[in-house]
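> forwarded from #structure-qc
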């Protein structure tokens, strides 16, 4: 399909972006890679009379790895994440997850900022960022503010970012311990039927901490504190695993769609989560 007519803007700096957002309010939207927004416009599911392309706005394409934290600019693409050696070493779960998003063509354009700002429950990075306890920085006329990923998602396509704010970067504490990103999809390039991000810290034979989030099983990503807590203090025996799975199943709320009925999705969620926990534990 062909999108409705729109005006196209390509400002050179953030001030230009914010001015257009201020002038047109709800009628204006920023575009990063365009690989979620343009399909929505073509399907007439998004009406965007004023489209603001972020490609020429500098300062949002860096990956910085410090001692305690990693900062990723909003315009960093999924392909950049995959190709960045030091990042793959510092936070290998990012590369493992990015490799399971769409296909290479989409990953060359799709950005980290677009993926997390979009608010689509099918996007892989929101749950991943919740697992990693990331913080999103957004900027508006009032200056920058930080929003924890775990507080960012309110409902499908509804987030804590205001319409006149732009997400500029994602910051995460340096991940520790074992990790796994597991995703079940119908075919290569598809969105998840269920996906799980798990990060586990082990002390001796005991689980010292566990962070777990799942994707596409509710209208937001689900970070389950209870699922992580069920593993802490255990050596991941079968009872602990079952308790974590039960906690997560209590937190998700899948709906029937072309990926299957609710019972099937709950089943897949359990299988994927068990697999992710076991792999993260084996790497911890
Ligand atoms: P855009 O499409 O440009 O923007 C998406 C939304 O975010 C828009 O509402 C836009 O206004 C907003 N936005 C973008 N950047 C900012 C910013 N800096 N600040 C504030 N708002 C912003 N994704 C997955 O996670 N997993 C998949 O398996 C997957 N499969 C796909 C398969 C296909 C065939 C396609 C076409 C896409 C798929 N995607 C998938 C989506 C892809 O990863 C998108 O590119 C990504 O979700 C959005 O990134 P983008 O840079 O293209 O954002």
């Amino acid at each position: 399909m062909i999108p409705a007519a729109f005006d196209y803007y390509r400002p050179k700096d953030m001030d230009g972006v914010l001015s257009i957002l201020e002038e047109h309010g709800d009628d204006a939207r920023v575009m990063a890679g365009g690989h979620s927004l343009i399909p929505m416009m073509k399907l007439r599911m998004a009406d965007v009379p004023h489209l603001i392309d972020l490609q020429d706005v500098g300062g949002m394409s860096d990956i910085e790895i410090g001692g305690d934290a990693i900062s990723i600019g909003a315009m960093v693409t999924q392909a950049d994440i995959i190709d960045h050696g030091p990042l793959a070493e510092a936070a290998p779960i990012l590369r493992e997850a990015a490799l399971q998003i769409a296909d290479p063509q989409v990953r060359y354009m799709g950005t980290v900022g677009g993926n997390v700002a979009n608010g689509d429950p099918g996007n892989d990075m929101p749950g991943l960022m919740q697992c990693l306890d990331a913080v999103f920085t957004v900027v508006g006329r009032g200056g920058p503010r930080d929003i924890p990923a775990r507080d960012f998602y309110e409902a499908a396509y509804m987030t804590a970012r205001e319409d006149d704010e732009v997400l500029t970067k994602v910051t995460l504490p340096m991940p520790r311990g074992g990790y796994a990103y597991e995703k079940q999809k119908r075919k290569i390039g598809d969105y998840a039927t269920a996906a799980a991000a798990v990060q586990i810290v082990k002390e001796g034979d005991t689980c010292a901490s566990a962070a777990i989030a799942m994707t596409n099983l509710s209208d937001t990503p689900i970070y389950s504190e209870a699922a992580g807590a069920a593993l802490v203090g255990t050596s991941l025996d079968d009872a602990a695993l079952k308790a974590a799975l039960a906690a997560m199943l209590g937190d998700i709320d899948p709906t029937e769609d072309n990926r299957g009925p609710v019972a099937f999705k709950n089943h897949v969620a359990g299988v994927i989560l068990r697999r992710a926990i076991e792999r993260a534990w084996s790497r911890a």
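QC bot note: The mean pLDDT is 97. Residues 29-37, 39, 54, 74, 101-102, 106, 109-111, 113-115, 117-118, 123-125, 166-167, 189, 191 surround flavin-adenine dinucleotide (CB under 6 Å).
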